[in-house]
Design brief:
Strand 14 and strand 15 form a beta hairpin. The mean pLDDT is 96. 37% of the residues are buried. An eight-stranded antiparallel β-sheet has the order 1-2-6-7-10-13-14-15, with helices on one face. Strands 3-5-4 form a three-stranded antiparallel β-sheet. By secondary structure, the chain is of the alpha+beta class. Helix 1 runs antiparallel to helix 6, helix 3 packs parallel to helix 7 and helix 6 packs antiparallel against helix 7. The chain has eight helices and 16 strands. Among the domains are: 80 residues, Orthogonal Bundle (T-fold); 118 residues, T-fold (Roll).
């Protein structure tokens, strides 16, 4: 086995490649991985002054999106409709004004305002995104998961069909043997509330304990302008990390049944009173 450990897009990456690579192969592959991450970050990060997202926050107009945009933007559009606008990439200004800004100030800067509706702000027909009014987009609900999928494609394009990628808890596994994933207790990181069994799929989690300041977490309801408090942790298992990451955010706002009408996934939810909900198809064990 060959391993990679590094920092990227503000999180820790650990990649297991289930075969040995020599030093030259490892170095070349690592360069390709880092290049792919940087390309994605330069397009979609709201924390970079030189990103496409930052440019769209400064001027209206017609923008040509990267080739990889279609799966992510199409999913966001569908989830926007299915959650009645509660999951939206248009929360960038809201989250930034609340304190989760490019400087990581973690201090509310101004009175918060509800984001624009999708059709008010933009029009999307791949590869074109028409920005009608300058707006700061935020792809935090699904972007990291999607990047995990894209890094997986880099590995597969380099003759590595079996691997496990862990980017800050967003995990994608491809291999003949299943792995066990601990579900971290959102109120005690030294403990787990259960274990998930993962094989040829992705598991992504979301909780407010990692990015919390004042009354806010990185998840903010665009209608109430407050962070959810009844739900404290969610995990989703799905075919891709893009879908798992996005649905993990959705489950803070809408019942699982509403999403199950369109998507196949497993889930575990921990509520503030320590009660727990899981899907009937969840593969694993729950300890509480």
């Amino acid at each position: 086995m060959t391993q990679f450990d590094f920092e990227g897009i503000g999180t820790t990456w650990h990649i297991d490649v289930y075969r040995e690579l020599d030093e030259k192969q490892k170095s070349e592959l690592f360069s390709k991985i880092k290049d792919r991450i940087d390309i994605f970050d330069k397009a979609y990060s709201r924390f970079r002054a030189d990103s496409l997202v930052t440019k769209m926050s400064q001027e209206s107009g017609v923008f040509t999106l990267p080739d990889d945009a279609e799966p992510m933007l199409s999913l966001y559009r569908d989830l926007y409709l299915r959650t009645d606008g509660l999951v939206t990439p248009l929360v960038g200004n809201l989250i930034s004004d609340a304190g989760y800004d490019a400087q990581y100030s973690l201090k509310q800067k101004k009175k918060l305002e509800k984001p624009l509706a999708w059709d008010e702000a933009m029009e999307y027909h791949h590869p074109t995104l028409v920005i009608k009014r300058p707006v700061l987009l935020d792809f935090g609900a699904a972007g990291k998961g999607y990047l995990v999928d894209l890094v997986g494609k880099v590995l597969e394009e380099n003759d590595i069909p079996e691997y496990c990628i862990d980017a800050g808890g967003d995990i994608l596994h491809k291999g003949n043997a299943p792995i066990r994933i601990g579900l971290e207790d959102p109120e005690n990181k030294e403990k787990v509330v259960g274990v998930g069994i993962l094989q040829n799929a992705s598991i992504c989690g979301s909780a407010g304990n990692r990015r919390k300041w004042g009354d806010f977490t990185h998840i903010i309801n665009p209608m109430t302008l407050a962070s959810p408090t009844d739900t404290i942790a969610v995990w989703v298992v799905a075919e891709t990390a893009l879908l798992a990451d996005a649905l993990a955010t959705c489950l803070f706002f809408v019942p699982a049944g509403k999403l199950a009408e369109a998507y196949t996934f497993e889930y575990v939810i921990v509520y503030r009173d320590r009660s727990l909900e899981k899907s009937a198809n969840f593969q694993g064990e729950i300890f509480v």
